[in-house]
Structures are given as C-alpha cells and as structure tokens.
Amino acid sequence: MSRDQRRAVLKEVAKEYGRTGYNPDRAITIFGLVTELAEIMDKRSNSRRASFAGAHAIKVYENTARKYGYKGEKGPVHCKKGCGYCCHTRVTATALELFMLARGIRDRWNDANDPLKERFRAVEAQTRAIPREQWVPNRIPCAFLAGGACSVYESRPLTCRTYASLSLPACIDWFNGAQVEVPHPDRNQLLRVFILAAMKAAMANAGFEIAGFEMAHGLEIAMAPDAEARWLAGENVFAGVKNDDFSGRPGGRSQGHEAFDLIVEVFKTGPFGKDMPPNPWFSW
User: Fold this and answer.
1) If you average pLDDT over residues 220-249, what whole number do you get?
2) Fewer CB within 10 A of the terminal residue: the chain, N end or C end?
3) Are 230 and 237 in contact, with CB atoms under 8 Å apart?
4) Alpha-carbon distance 267 to 129, whole Å?
5) End-to-end CA distance of the chain, in Å?
6) Largest CA distance in the chain
7) Partners of residue 186 on adjacent β-strands
8) pTM of model > 0.90
C-alpha cells in the first residue's frame, strides 16, 4: 500500500473513532486512540501530560465499554459491590495510570481526617515485603479495599476496570486456594489489551519506559508532588518498584506476553503510517 493510501485509511479511521470510543469490531479504529495519546505526550509544555494521557485512555475505555462491551452472551457478570475476592491479588499499572490515580486521590491523601493514607501504608508495607506469588495465599487485600468496596473507584487503573467474573463460586474457590480458572467475558479482556497497548505505544514513542509497576509501591512514589514532572524529565522515579518486565526471568516472556509485545510494536508504527511488523491483526 502506498503512503497516500495509508494516509487515506488513517483519515477514515480518524472519522470513525470518536466520542463513543474505538470499535472493537473494526479494530483498526484503535489507531485513533494511539495518535491522540501520542499528541498528549508530545505537549512538553504540559507538566501533567502523563496523568492527562492516562485519564484520556481510561475515558476511551469507559466509552467503548458502554457501547461495545460485554452483552451477557455467556451469562451475567457476578461482580458487585461488597464482593472483593479479586481485590486480593497483585495489580500492576503503567506510569500514566499511577499519575492519574495520584492526581485523583491527592486531596484525600492530604486530609488528616481521611483514613485512606494510613490504611494504604499499612497494607503496602506488607505487600512490598513478600514475593508476588505469596500475595494471594496470604489473602492480603488491596490497600484501597474498604468495606468490601473500592475506595478509589473513580480513579482505579485499567486492570481493575476490565476484570469481570462470570462465576462467583469460582471466585470463592480461587480465594480459598483452589487451582481454578475464573471465567470472564472475552470482550473485556480484548478491550484491556488494546487500551493498554495503546498507552504503552504512546509512551514508547515518547521515549519513556513502558513497564507496568506494582500499583501500591508505584503509587507511593507517584504521590510525591514533583514525581510526575521528574518522570517526564527523564528521571527513573520508579527504580526499585517491582514491574511486569519478564525479560530477566527464567524462561523469559510467555507466548501471551510475546503476542502483547507484538501489538505494542504494531501500535508504534501503524497509527503513524509506517510499515507494521508482520502480525495477524492489522495490515496495509
């Protein structure tokens, strides 16, 4: 496909992508989000562009989920307020999401009458001291779980937003240590993968690290008033935080992670009219 033809395709995609989010049934419309995030990250005069980009990606996810999300084909979603079984596992979030979350809860964090900060630090001290595989067996709750509900619901990261269970009994069995697979809507996971890949592609194009960081420890750092500005200036503020980079682990990345890495590479090229690496999802 010629450069002019690619431009025509991207122009058509830009028209289709809009307030209702991208269209998962025409996946190439996700290119619209990638270019928007890249534009936000490129505005160097904006000292909050990381948190803005994170908030924009979440907004697009919510809009997309409302229009194109799971419609109950495999049965109803069992998740509801007061449950919280899934809130006893390790969650990672990108720097964009961490800064978005930090901005969303800063007033409460600095309010001496709000127990959020004290409760968070008590839990975070436990989770930082144990290996990731020990989190679930120890039944350590998320630092933001209070009364069976998320106390930072409006600012929660993408992983928490997209998780959905089709079986409460399976969730209870998992919580109690059984080796079971909790059924979930495939559409939710597809939305999560593409939105997350879009954020990581935009960060990579801007020259930033794209790892997902352990949420609690990462947030502790992101809450510093100047953390976002320092990160945007190139400082590795999350050094020492456990992340989802599998490259240094025995066996490397799994097949699923390799597929995700390929999606990120596609999103770093295709939305900007460049040659995409061979992949089973998109082509010119």
Assistant:
1) 86
2) N
3) yes
4) 36
5) 6
6) 61
7) none
8) yes
